[in-house]
From TrEMBL:
Family: Belongs to the binding-protein-dependent transport system permease family.
Signal peptide: none
Protein name, entry field: Carbohydrate ABC transporter permease
The organism's place on the tree of life at top rank: Bacteria
Listed PROSITE patterns: ABC_TM1
Membrane topology reported for the UniProt record: Multi-pass membrane protein
Gene Ontology process terms (BP): transmembrane transport
GO cellular component entries: plasma membrane
SUPFAM superfamilies: MetI-like (SSF161098)
Amino acid sequence: MMKQTASQFFSAVINGILLLFCASYIFPFAWLFYTSLKSQKSFLVNMFGPPIPPTLENYQKLFSDKALIQALFNSFFNCLLSIILIVVFSFSVGYVLARYNFKGRNLLYLTFVAAMLVPVHALLVPTYVYFGTLNLLNKRFTLLLPYVTFGLPVAIYLYESYIRTIPKEIEEAARIDGASTSYVMLRVIFPICLPITGTVILLNFMGIWNEFPFALVLASHPRTRTVTVWLSTLTGLYSGSIPLRLTALLVACLPIIIVFILLRQKMIESVAAGAIKGF
């Protein structure tokens, strides 16, 4: 009886600690949300209290700013095109590395693995110099080249590791039916790779959306600046309204939260599939 009571007490303590950890993660986002519904006066009266009355004034002010709309468009543009290019190239290269043995294959694979160890921000100054020489600064496609280049090594490694676990008999059955290599890649292997594709999309979206140094140095013009660079200008623009600045942070975080919610299941499936096949 005493052992059962002690076990229940221990479980209650562990659950309480876990609930506190969960609350510590959830509360900042909840506070950010309901603070965005406050006016500056209401915020100064009670910083942590609920918005009484709630107002959408902060959102109206933000979305009336054309600079925010332009920054959101630039960030979505960079994320979308970069991720498409990363998925296309990394899947193709990963498939070749996983399915074909050719001279220099191991050297090529090790090169991609070694590229994962390169501190990308150490390349910021050389990239700025080269882009300035080639007149590529503050262009619509300026950030695509570094984002795709830095995203490829990890994506290739993930695709190669995942495709290697797929039985070759699936491809051989398709080839017996007359399927070409491109058909096998696009219609047979790629659908099986959807879980790892979700992981690649999620990791790169988070990285590209949150990226700041390259966006600041290579594309700081108002026409090409991203959301993260636009946020750095809020200190001067809206320094008098804390709820307005917090609303801007919430707007910048929402796309990442939405993409994570949409793709979290695919990421879990890719981890689970790798664990089962590895076992």
